[in-house]
Fold each of these.
Amino acid sequence: MTVPVRIAQLSCGPEYSGVQNEINEAARMVDAEVFYPDIKLSELRRDFDSFGLDVRSPDLKLAIARAKALVDGRVNADAVFIASCFRCAEAAIVRNELRRFIHENSRLPVVSYSFTERTTAATLLTRMEALTTIARRRALLAREVQEGITMGVDSGSSTTKAIVMKDNVVVGTGWKPTTEVMKSAEDVITTALEEAGLHMEDLDAVGTTGYGRFLVGKKIGADLIQEELTVNSKGAVYLADCQHGPSTVLDIGGMDNKAISVQDGIPGTFTMGGICAGASGRFLEMTSKRLGVEITELGPLAMNGKWDKVAMNSYCIVFGTQSLVNALAAGSFREDVAAAACHSVAEQVFEQQLQEVDIKEPVIMVGGTSLITGLVHAMGELLQTNIVVPRYSQYIGAVGSALLASGFIKGE
Amino acid sequence: MAKVFIYPATSLMLSDLVARFGHKPLGSAISVRDHIQTAGFESPPLQMTPDDPKKGLKYAAVEVPSGVRGRMSLYGPLIEDADAAIIVNDSDYAFGCMGCARTNELVKFLIKERKMPIIELLYPSTEEEGVTFVRSIRSFLDSLKDGSP
């Protein structure tokens, strides 16, 4: 039996929101335990004062003092979970500063989350799984080269992807929209294997990731079933050839977005989610349908337009759609509308998520949306940087899985 | 005997003072006691559910953070039930402490809106102030007869 990963909880409000049991349950599902760092009253007074952030809520003062105890090594933990109520400005400031403080002063992986009373264990599962993976599988995550013949399958919310790799080279790819989870996976596996000229029995190891990872992984007997936060980070730095030093990985997905601050290929802090589909690839998919173009044509179309000629705010997908329809009805050019849609999605991600991670160059964009040039351009403008989009970026989860799965050949 | 809401609601010392001078203290010990659903007496006593923040909607709108509404589901009914209140500001953590500053602001506002007898004090910092502090509370409690001053 493995020793549970100990996750220190720094929080304000989860018990009173009725979600503490959900947090505990999510941790239990990944064989981890959540605990509150034990500190003395005298330490609370001293450490809160010395931190210098003069907040008024006593529970936030306690969270600050507990963070100091973790960083100073007075309390042992494998990872840190910072949580506070959604819509609390005071707590958001503390959450952000504590995440940064822990990230800069320790090797502890950190995830922060703002909850409502509707937060469930299922919502928290991927985050907890990523935290425990980083804590438990550092050796596996240190892998930099793919060996043998391995396959990675990414069963995503919008698309399913498969990659076959042999001796550090991609030799087969498969891609299709997700319909029936298992059927889609079987189809992309067949395509990838055919392209590689291989059969299932030739594979040394297999890894799965994405929303359908458990179902697909179980069915095909995967050696590695892993959430997409660590897998995508690993795949991104591998493909972009940035395995050492800092980087930021950004994946604007079909259902949620991931922003991950990476150091030496291992995620340090990350956020996952999004307020509304208006800040995801789903809105761009809808935009392309409304403009009557394939999603693959949306990016080049946007590159020929000017986003500031159309007022668009996709904070909410319904309002975003209204802006889209109104702009077209008012005679706006399709190019400008496409550019505005890309800019709006980039802006939502920038405002809602990128504030919660430290942006360190290079910024690597991955996932299907990284192929929409207009979106990459808009994000680069907002971040004032040249964004790296590596080859096979749309297969990122599958590549990361294939890479990490090769660790299982040698029993890492 | 008057029902006296105490702030901080977690203060055992205030609760004891109110009871000692013949009144019923209304603090978190009462509201939290209703929530004991754990296996043993030494288990953490607070077992709230996502329904509690919804009950708190009576005191704070849906745009208010869930933690505030959850807390208000505990304290709101006590404030409604109170005949009088004692508010101690800037108290030491050890005296009794309520975790959320926003909830604390709302609790004090709702107490004052009730237009009931209230004594509002600063937490004493010297022994002399401590004596005056207890004397003031005692004389306030003495003035409460059958739930009215």
Amino acid sequence: MSNLLSQSMPALAGVGFKPQHFESIINQQTNVAWFEIHAENYMGKGGIFHHHLEQLCLNYPLSIHGVGLSLGSFDGVCDRQLADLKTLVNRYQPALVSEHLSWSRHGTYSLNDLLPMPYTQESLKVFVDNISHTQDVLGRQILIENPSSYFELNYNEFSEPEFLVSIAQLSGCGILLDVNNVYVSAMNHGFDAKEYIDAVAPVSVGEIHLAGHSVQAMHDKEIRIDDHGSKVCDAVWELYQYTLDKIGAKPTLIEWDNDVPAWQELVEQADIANSYLKKIDVALDTYE
Amino acid sequence: MNKPNLQQFQSLMEHSLLSDNVDNDCHQLMSLFAPKGELSDAQDEAKLRLAIYRNNVMHSLTTALADLYPVIKKLVGEACFKGAAIEFVRRYPPKRAALLHYGEKFSEFIGKYPPCENLPFLADIAQLEFNYNQAYHQADSDILDPQQLASVAPEQLGEVRFTCVGSLALLSSPWPIDEIWRQNQQEEQQVINLDDCQAANLAIFREGYNVQIVNLEENCFYLLQQLSLNKTIGEAWQATQEDASNAQRELDESELGAMLGYLFSLEILSAFKINA
């Protein structure tokens, strides 16, 4: 599928846009190279949210990241939700559009969470069909993000990276590689995070996510929760370095959605990501 | 449980996330989790793994409701609000992924929620907050410059129809809900005497990026309601006079000009046309 980018996304650090940071962003010089928004927060028709976005888009490339399309739903994507996403994409012509390897809607209700998929032949077909339909309607390629998860099913027929790589091959979508999610799921399920990274073709990766997570006690073990509420931890920075060495420099987002910090603290996280990115000489493979 | 198909799995999981206790269906779902570590703790561990998703869903949706209904939360207190929100989420999960549309039924729900029965104005406050949120995100509208009406011949003025700004909602209540809402935007509240209070006839709309809540005089509210139904000035004024007469409200013929002038000043009218 051709990629109708009206903007190109630099292989530098961006951050998730929060309305409370708007004045700081507009009034200061920043090394933050681009912004990402959650599509569903901008599905109103007007008002200050869109005013912010219009101003932001004058100076920065944008990534629209959906959390509610539910590409894993057995009964297809919701027409209205997809139409709302298309309206937003047409309005802002973002450099990147992404969604998740998950589901959130069953029939009538939307559960506002990124729920785990069974990794089976049946769900692979559903997922690929739903992505293909979405890409046809939007007229462009989307990226699919690997989720954090807290259980695995005992009847999975694929590992998660096998499933992710297959949907990219079969649908022509790209991959949004969330390094924090790889780490969280690897720790929760006991697989090797680096093997997961190794399984992904560098050329398929269009974006990287980094975020903080929390650790909860579970009996005598620990479970890691992807809550986007703190700084990126050292182990995830280390896995990020490993990822960049494997796949080259890619646009990298700092996600911080809960207990949102002051603008300067978010910028510091982006600066760290930029310092890693700038040590990678060239992008190994241009994302196509 | 045997391997379910995708529809069965999603149905089982949806039920397991919304059910008020960990029932048989939840146990069926948990029996599908791949065991990690010691088999002896497998069941306890599965419960904790499911609980993470149950908490995430409930926490995110009740937090969204608290953000949409801050005044209701303040009026009933945090614990009561949390209980109401959990029950509401279970009964009316969101139908759309964009949560700025969530909670349309919350007004009706909170009005009948037994622990809040002694607060009869609560449903109307919730409706006000819902309208406020919708106005906040509504499409931007042009504002009609009253000078444009100068082009209309005086004898044709009665035939003029207006389009109101897209964000406008009209809400009336026997309770002083605008005053209650305003007091609860402040750190400290003054006592409002409900036995000696003004009813609310509210126009809720966005001016620029800010939502305005204006309590209109009753005749003016009625006139605006008629105009918003796409009636001509002549029809709307006649209906207003009839209603005023039926309800024994005073209304002088000469007041129309002042009322229209006031509505223009609120920037509530977006466009006009004649004879359409």
